[in-house]
Amino acid sequence: MDDAVLSSGSYILTLLNKKKDVQIITVFTSFGSRPISWGAQKYLMKSGFSRLDSFTKARKNEDMNSMHMLDIPFVHLEFIDGGFRKDSKEKFFYTTFDYLCSGKVPHEDVRLIPAIKKTLTSSLIHASDILYTPLGIGNHADHIIVNRVAQTLPNKTYYWLDQPYAWKAKINQQYGYKETFRVPHQKKKEEVLSCYRSQIWQLYPHGIPKIDEVFFEKKPTRR
Fold this sequence. Notes:
By secondary structure, the protein is α/β, with parallel strands linked by helices. About 40% of the residues lie in helices and about 15% in strands. The protein has one domain: 3-Layer(aba) Sandwich (Rossmann fold). The protein is built from 8 helices and 6 strands. Strand 3 (about 130-135), helix 6 and strand 4 form a beta-alpha-beta unit. The chain starts with a helix and ends in a 5-residue tail after the last strand.
């Protein structure tokens, strides 16, 4: 629920200044139910919570405060966050953060792609819409899944360089993407990110970096 602002907050502000219509659709906004993995429990504790319901409420409130500050419409799709997802046998897909960011998406978890696509195309996305979605550079399973969903849609799509994983940017050229444009950091973005109190200090313990936001397009497939 912080990824859109983390990776494209300055660009969102630029679009709003140009009076463009912007909507943020956040796919993974649920954290399931207990029991949760030890890795997920550590994440809760690092975020300042011991109870899952309190954590869930706080995360959603943080995101709503951010969206209200931007004054834009938003949608929470309520798919379960990767660190809390379980398979059909109630086993966790990703027991540690390292595995969640390994780039490996179990076959059973891939089933989310058509489900997410169906939800998006039923009423939320139209053919004329321009999409902005994660590049997936940090190999986070949720980012990879949303990236794959976007690639199944016919819309014009730009892929943002995921922050705080942007230090891996040089890897992108190997995966069929080309850099299309950059957006300079805006001070207002820091104010919006401050809404995510439980997260931002973990992501940027030394302060929010003043770096460009970078956007890519898929290179045409050679035949």
